[in-house]
Amino acid sequence: MNDAPDRKLWGAAEAYESYMGRWSRLIASHFLLWLDAEAHGRWVDLGCGTGALSRQVMQTCRPSSLLGLDLSEAFLQAAKHSVPEAEFMLADATDTGLPNAEFDYAVSGLVLNFTRDPRATLREMVRLVRPGGRVALYVWDYAGHMQIMRSFFDVARAIDSGAAAFDDGINAPICRPGPLRRALEEAGAVDVEVTAVDIPAAFPDFDAYWSPFLGGTGSAPKYVAGLSDDVRNRIRDAVQAALPTGPDGEILLAVRAWAVKGTVAE
Q1: What pLDDT digit, counting tens, does each position of 32-69 carry?
Q2: Which of 30, 56, 35 is nearest to 257 (CA)?
Q3: What is the pTM of this model?
Q4: Could you tell me how many helices (H) and strands (E) the chain has, helices first?
Q5: Do residues 45 and 67 touch, judged by C-beta distance below 8 A?
Q6: What confidence tens digit (pLDDT) does each residue in 180-235 have?
């Protein structure tokens, strides 16, 4: 594997941590409280990334075992460092190769819309869980109150129509309450519930907000990496002007994820 920055989506652990990983951890703790899992369960985390959700599972849910799966070696190495008590394996979330009904809980954080087939991922999650076990995940509210991204893309699309090709508010329609519920039910889960998980996202100044967009990891950073200096600077200045900024330069945004959970039918 080439370790030089290649700007591939979700390809660099440090860039992802700066851009979204830190917010994922905060969402994960609220998500797990809502899931209300029993202790000593067998868990699998599909698309575990740098281990944000896996770490929270290990710290708060007292699992008997935890297996994290991802397609990025760089992410898996970061996850192993963050959660040494868990096991991690290179695997595709749509076709893990693991046995049926092997787990009590299958979870996923902020990755469903980045898998090659989100509905196949949901079917795989249901397949991996025993009857009576739980399947649960969360995704960003890209089209609504994930303001870190919406503040960027609403401005970028007004300047460059090409930004729409990277805007998950347009390109990930499954990341909304109705589609999420229907997709998990169609995958075979019952008693499906959806809820909003909200947290604040504070930045001390504009540079703290903008710098993660330069890392090349994630939809918006990938888009930014392909821009000319002129267009990038125009978008940067317009985003800065549009953001709600306090008297000392601080920026406070809302961050929302949609969480969905269901039970595997007996």
Answers
A1: 999 999 999 999 999 998 899 999 999 999 999 999 99
A2: 30
A3: 0.89
A4: 11, 7
A5: yes
A6: 999 999 999 999 999 999 999 999 999 999 999 998 778 899 999 999 999 999 99
- The DSSP bridge partners found for residue 251 are 203, 245
Beta strand 129-140 pairing with 103-109: parallel
The residue with tokens 């970028």 is 156
Q: CA-to-CA distance for 146 and 65, rounded, in angstroms?
A: 32
Residue 248 CA to residue 188 CA, distance in Å, equals 51
Cα gap 188→174, rounded to integer Å: 17
**Closest C-alpha to 25, from 41, 1, 48, 4:** 48
Please choose, from the candidates 91, 102, 93, the residue with its C-alpha nearest in 3D space to the C-alpha of residue 123: 93
> Residue 156 pairs with which residues in a beta bridge?
none
Q: How far apart are CA 226 and CA 71, in angstroms?
A: 24
- Catalogue all structural domains in the chain, each as residue range(s) with its CATH number: 13-264 (3.40.50.150)
Q: Where are the alpha helices (DSSP H) in the chain?
A: 13-16, 22-35, 52-60, 73-82, 118-128, 147-159, 168-171, 177-186, 206-210, 219-225, 229-242
